[in-house]
Fold:
Amino acid sequence: MPLDNPKSDFSKWYSEILLRGDIVDARTPIKGANVILPNGYTIWESIKRFLDQQFEATDHKNAYFPLFIPEEFLLRESEHFEGFVPEVAWVTRVGDRELNQKLALRPTSETIMYHMYAQWIKDHSDLPIKYNQWANIIRMDTKETRPLLRDREFQWSEAHTCHAKPEEAVEQVKESMLIYQALFDALGLSYLVVRRPKFDTFPGADYSIAYDAPLTDGRVLQIGTTHNLGQSFAKVFHIKYTDKDGKSQLVYQTCYGVSTRVLAAIIALHGDDQGLILPPKFAPIQIGLVPIFFKEDSDLVKTAIEDLTKELKKAGYKAKADIRESYTAGWKFAEFEMKGVPIRLEIGPRDLKNDSVMLVRRDTGEKQSVKRSDVKKVIKKVMIDIAQNLKMKADDILQQMLHQIDDFEALKKLMSTTRGIAISNWCGEDECAENIKEETSADIRGVREDIEEKPTGPCIVCLEEGKFRVYIAQAY
Amino acid sequence: MPLDNPKSDFSKWYSEILLRGDIVDARTPIKGANVILPNGYTIWESIKRFLDQQFEATDHKNAYFPLFIPEEFLLRESEHFEGFVPEVAWVTRVGDRELNQKLALRPTSETIMYHMYAQWIKDHSDLPIKYNQWANIIRMDTKETRPLLRDREFQWSEAHTCHAKPEEAVEQVKESMLIYQALFDALGLSYLVVRRPKFDTFPGADYSIAYDAPLTDGRVLQIGTTHNLGQSFAKVFHIKYTDKDGKSQLVYQTCYGVSTRVLAAIIALHGDDQGLILPPKFAPIQIGLVPIFFKEDSDLVKTAIEDLTKELKKAGYKAKADIRESYTAGWKFAEFEMKGVPIRLEIGPRDLKNDSVMLVRRDTGEKQSVKRSDVKKVIKKVMIDIAQNLKMKADDILQQMLHQIDDFEALKKLMSTTRGIAISNWCGEDECAENIKEETSADIRGVREDIEEKPTGPCIVCLEEGKFRVYIAQAY
Structure:
């Protein structure tokens, strides 16, 4: 049974594909804390591997910090963390004993990490330091939860760096942008890199860069952020180093993170009514093999499939054959399609006779008969094609969502119909941003960070001088 | 500055090596919840990779289940979990709101996983199922905490399986034993595989197998467990399948886990007064390269070191050169030694002239001059030698700790002096086990599971008929 069409009912399609695509099971007894199923978990593990390689190449180190954060730490930086407080889960009891000081479960790890950094950093030779942590994060959002989009427990990577000079922190922000863009490009995602407006900057940060991916329902999803923290946390957590002249100096800091939200973007941007479509590099199964059984040739077909599977595995591909005789070939096709397997290979008696293999692309559905001896060569090429095609289609989705809008009424109409991303001018006043939010449920997401853009006219709301060319969209 | 001798003051040595070997920093504000530092974290990641390969080869799937467990689940299986209750951390508040039902942080994941299994399993074709989870675990032990040995938050792998037939569960227990033994052997650990006595069986399990590693202070450390759960959890969580005759049947279950405790065993069994000694396969840095600078040849030496490092990396080795001129070669030697780097390569002007490289083994300290063109060949061999030597030395430690003891007074003496592992006979009565515990602080760890052993005389305590040949030791 096919799924709903993602374009006609995104919400229903998304809920269904999570379970049938083996990504998430939300039927847990705890709202917003779900099971990440094998297909979803394995994609996340490949994302982890990809980022770990990037981190290693740029001298980041992996470490693990405690889940618990003492209340006193959050109080100390309450100015920064006001926004998190309503979402913090508190451990107040152990067994039947009340704790003297209650413990927060990390909604993010600045406080506990920077407490350690203050102990680790002595002098300039200890800088820069760049640590990354893979961890579960707890944010007991009171709004409606949605798997991967808005979870109360989710997985993420958070990197936190310290530098001697402010310009090094600026460079570090750029390095993180390169790392994340490499990841998102490899995943075939489209996205905008924007600098958030002041009112939407991470509390305590000088400025925040965010990566917004378009979803097919016309909304956007923040799939990553980078913050230049300046010295504000360094002041609160006393992170100091002795410079070459023997003087004590505060460090400059950055932090950046991506979470399992990236999985939601992969699902939503690439999927169709047959299920998931996964980028080959990150697919838990890259090649699904299906024998087409006919009575007389069953054994030969089975052997041919098993030989090919072995050969592909040896060549480093994640190949899986489904040789069960109790399921039809059609059922197996649908199953591999639902799970997003990029390439399907079929062998039947006719293929055997012709010494060929039928190759089917998940993204386009195209079929081609491939000479047995060419299979590996063709797969290599098709995988590159699929990755490029996914990226191109995702870029198209983004392009189609972008609308140059200079009139507030037109913006209201857009956001109440197809939705999308409006490119408009803004005076920079919070009042106008609030006005937009109230009237359209959309947010000013920010100005482009990857390219320079100048305002082209007056503010879309108040018609005063436009100071920023901004991107406006409804967000998850 | 060298460490203390591990044999003269294990406790002091262990605390020191954790920080200086870049394994754990326990200077956090939360007792028993520590920072796993890069060297420690990276070893844990290689253990994860090793087990994931084993799991994949044996059709286990990785998934992730929620950290939170509803109170009702723990109450439902209170019979099994009585032992955990005093250690459970409870989330009772979110922001400033009290929760209606408090949430436990997983002390282990049977309840939440089996609740999902009951929804997933319909008929016999769904069996067996074998899921593994990598997760952080919370046990607020009230006893003295010790990094990696007894933590309130730690990392682990827990696998949970369901089967149609009891004999399949028995086979699964054996499969898990093979997997864990492969891991421990690869890590060069020595260990006993024992079946725990009834009074020390995991609550709810038919029987428990445990892996006890010797530590150099004469105690043992449980580094893994496997439980045959029978049907007791299946009954409580209603995990049923429809068999081939259409009848509803309860599944049979097993579960098994290893945690970051394994890191403690690696440190304690292999380390010496110069620091860690890591098995090559799992070492974050396998080869440390140090240039021996002399004024006139500095550039040549540096280039030679960099070329060799590149070559080794290309060959797949984790190689790291320390070419900083502000540190002495001696300082760098000590640093690589402290972190357990298995092989050190040095190049100085004389080596350059002879077209050779000096190779130093971390485990034996042996030095040999190697022809430049033979380096990779020799490294390959030396790594195998080091792995074998570590395993041999660890086996020696275990052998030296084993004592055939048939007299209670002799047992008391052993446990109050050098400690060790006594092999004795036991009648099977709890009273005698309690007597041993009281008089010697040692536990009956169980009977050997990997080999068959029969009692050789009367019970060491009551002198009644000996029914079990048991291993007795003080444990962490």
The CA atoms of residues 356 and 372 of chain B lie 5 Å apart. The first strand of chain B starts at residue 24 and ends at 25. Chain B has a mean pLDDT of 95.
